[in-house]
């Protein structure tokens, strides 16, 4: 890779002291539908597929593109796989909000089950929508990153969150090579 914006280019936060360059974890992903945001690490690349990166030594969560996310997490393959998963699921994401199987649960919230995942949508006290994805196999929950005015927008964000939950589950269930 000779022509990319990331650590080698020394742009944006890559060039700033006090910003960790390694040790980041991807905490959520999002398909913006079209390139419409600038990567918050290199501050140069316009991105569509966002990987939200968090580091315990930095106060903010950064919205990043594939290359920066890969270098920040020291896992270019994992970042590429997250990006590829978002791209491959574009059609499913578009239809997720209207998919058959949504029902109203006992608490009055829209909910759907997808394999080991239960996706529940709920209104916050300020009237905005949020979602939670629960991996029922290991009882771990993942929340959507933002609040949404539209239930359908929140459902699409929950779909993206479910993709990340699936990736985390696959990574945790992979056998470890012992030499």
Short key terms for the protein model shown above:
single chain; 179 residues; alpha+beta; Double Stranded RNA Binding Domain; 2 domains; 5-stranded antiparallel sheet; 3-stranded antiparallel sheet; 4 helices; 10 strands; 28% helix
Structure at a glance:
The chain is an alpha+beta fold and 179 residues long. It has helices at 66-73, 76-88, 90-96, 151-173; strands spanning 25-31, 37-38, 46-47, 49-54, 62-64, 103-104, 110-114, 117-123, 129-135, 140-143.
Helix content: 25-40%
Q: Give the N-terminus to C-terminus distance in angstroms.
A: 32 Å
CATH topology of the largest domain: Double Stranded RNA Binding Domain
Low-confidence stretches: 1-5, 174-179
Q: Topology, please?
A:
Layout: E1 25-31, E2 37-38, E3 46-47, E4 49-54, E5 62-64, H1 66-73, H2 76-88, H3 90-96, E6 103-104, E7 110-114, E8 117-123, E9 129-135, E10 140-143, H4 151-173
Antiparallel strand pairs: 1-4, 2-3, 4-5, 6-7, 7-8, 8-9, 9-10
Helix pairs in contact: 1-2
Structure description:
It is built from four helices and ten strands, in the order βββββαααβββββα. With 179 residues, it is α+β, with helices and mostly antiparallel strands. It has two domains: 82 residues, no CATH class; 83 residues, Double Stranded RNA Binding Domain. The strands form three sheets. A five-stranded antiparallel sheet has the order 6-7-8-9-10, covered by helices on one side. A three-stranded antiparallel sheet has the order 1-4-5. Strands 2-3 form a two-stranded antiparallel sheet. Helix 1 runs antiparallel to helix 2. The two termini are 32 Å apart. The N terminus and C terminus are likely disordered.
């Amino acid at each position: 890779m000779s022509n990319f914006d990331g650590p080698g280019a020394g742009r944006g936060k890559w060039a700033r002291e006090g910003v960790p360059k390694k040790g980041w974890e991807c905490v959520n992903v999002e398909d913006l539908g079209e390139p419409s945001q600038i990567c918050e690490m290199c501050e140069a690349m316009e991105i569509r597929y966002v990987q939200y990166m968090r580091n315990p030594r930095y106060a903010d969560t950064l919205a990043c593109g594939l290359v920066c996310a890969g270098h920040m997490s020291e896992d270019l393959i994992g970042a590429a796989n997250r990006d590829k998963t978002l791209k491959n699921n574009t059609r499913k994401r578009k239809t997720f909000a209207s998919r058959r199987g949504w029902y109203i649960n006992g608490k009055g919230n829209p909910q759907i089950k997808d394999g080991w995942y239960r996706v529940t949508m709920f209104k916050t006290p300020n009237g905005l929508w949020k979602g939670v994805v629960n991996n029922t196999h290991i009882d771990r929950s993942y929340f959507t990153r933002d609040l949404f005015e539209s239930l359908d927008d929140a459902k699409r964000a929950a779909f993206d969150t479910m993709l990340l939950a699936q990736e985390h589950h696959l990574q945790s269930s992979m056998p470890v090579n012992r030499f």
